[in-house]
Amino acid sequence: MNALTVETRGPVLLATINRIDAHNALNAEVLDGLAEAVDRAESDPNVRALVITGAGEKAFCAGADLKEVSTLDADAAQVKMRRGQSIMAAIENAEVPIIAAVNGLALGGGFELALACHFTVLSERASLGLPEVGLGLIPGYGGTQRLPRAVGDATALHLILTGETLKAQRAFELGITPVPPTAPEEVVDTALSIADRIAAQGPNAVRSVLRAVRADRAISPAALATETGLISLAIVGDESSEGIAAFLEKRAPNFGAASAKSDD
Predict the structure, then answer these.
(1) Nearest alpha-carbon partner for 237 in 133, 160, 136
(2) Which of 202, 23, 221 is nearest to 110 (CA)?
(3) What is the pTM of this model?
(4) Quick check: is 24 in a domain?
(5) Catalytic residue among 132, 227, 239, 242
(6) Is position 42 annotated as part of the catalytic site?
(7) Considering 92, 112, 239, 242, which one is annotated as catalytic?
């Protein structure tokens, strides 16, 4: 079974992350599938928009696969983070509109994926957050850059440093989504309807708007490099070892012990 499926819905592609048992967590196969979906959307003149969603009713994308992350050394972590960042950048800089239909949990890399899309449509059941600090990690797919741009520095810092999860209505109030939260069974259809409406507009004009809006909003490569370096160090650190172990063992982390060990 493919980890990401792509369907043609008239002038719109619908890409579905299909790892229900793992809450649609991002692994290498999903990232590769996303890259291929973006390439297909941009290269096919009959495609005017791309909608990304998650299979099932519980999760859009629950972020990185922590079991996979826990096996990485520093070099492998850098490669993985750069790969993820490049795919998020490809989504953000795409020449066709890309809409996230967030049908449930969007945590960590899942929220970063939604932030990279041009805009989102949220289910009333959607929950969004960057909980990485609770695992001894930091966001690594551009979240430290895109969330402040979306909601402002102070609100972004509050959300990242506390790991707070946003409910759909609060995300709407903060401007993370431009449309009120919709019924869970309607979120994909709502996103497809918006995509169809955009697809009916002049394609060159749509492309020009996307270029104009992002003209002075490009994320600094230096900022992303800083994020990559810091997350790569965090992945091989004692705090993340403790944080991930605690998460997998369903217990509270003991960061005091991990920090003391790091200081020795």
Answers:
(1) 136
(2) 23
(3) 0.94
(4) yes
(5) 132
(6) no
(7) 112
Write out the residue range of the structural domain in which residue 100 sits. Answer: 4-204
Could you give the CA distance from residue 147 to residue 114 in angstroms, rounded to a whole number? Answer: 10
Measured CA to CA in angstroms, residue 53 lies from 24, 57, 63, 236, 241 at distances of 10, 11, 13, 31, 30
Q: What residues have CB less than 8 Å from 145, skipping those under 6 apart? A: 219, 220, 223, 224, 227
Q: What is the pLDDT of residues 178-208, one digit of tens each?
A: 999 999 999 999 999 999 999 999 999 999 9
Q: What is the pLDDT of residues 204-243, one digit of tens each?
A: 999 999 999 998 888 889 999 999 999 999 999 999 999 9
What is 153-192 written as a DSSP string? HHHHHHHHHHTPPEEHHHHHHTTSSSS--B-GGGHHHHHH
C-alpha to C-alpha distance for 28 and 31, rounded to whole angstroms: 5
Burial of 126-148, coded b for 16+ CB within 10 Å and e otherwise, reads: bbbbbbbbbbbbbbbbbbbbbbb
C-alpha to C-alpha distance for 181 and 111, rounded to whole angstroms? 16
Work out how many domains the chain is built from and give that number. Answer: 1
> Which class for 263: exposed (0-12), middle (13-18), buried (19 or more C-beta within 10 A)?
exposed
3 state DSSP class of 121: strand
Residue located via tokens 């003209």: 215
| Residue 167 belongs to some domain of the structure | yes
The CB-side HSE value for 197 (13 A sphere, CA atoms) comes to 7
Q: Is residue 261 over pLDDT 60?
A: no
Judge whether 37 lies within some domain.
Answer: yes
Is 112 part of the annotated catalytic residue set?
yes
CATH number at residue 181: 3.90.226.10
| CA-CA-CA-CA torsion sign (235, 126, 111, 167) | negative
- DSSP tag of 54: E
- Torsional class of 121: left (φ above 0), alpha (ψ -120 to 50), beta (otherwise): beta
